[in-house]
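Quick one, T. Sequence first:
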Amino acid sequence: MFAELLCHRVGCNPAQLTKLEMLLLENLILEEIYRDIQAIIKANKQFYCKLIRSEAELEDDMLEKEVLLYVIHDLMNGGDYTLAGLALYTHTHEDVLFDIVTGQNANPSFVLSRRLFVLHRFVKPEYYDAIVQKVIASFVKQP
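Structure tokens:
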């Protein structure tokens, strides 16, 4: 889904790419989304990160665990979804999402994460358009 959006933005026909190439492109875009959300979380927790004076690796580990939590909270805080609604959309039991929100599950499945990112993209398209532009810009810079 994200890879097709990027292809259309740059004038590329997605049908010209193999399934593997589309999956790799999709992963590249998800990685960029992940980094952007980490930056938001880091900016919001700047004071906390200074207090613990952690090493960069420890700080990144803490932020990684909060990326999906941020997406879930953003979907729920906007009034767009409840936990039950997210469970229905993602074809996941509500308890699984509850475990993520409460910190009991810091490593949810890739499939669940992807479904939540896709839903978040539909709710916040302007945010993802900006990310796609960043990905395009990074490709243009490369030789």
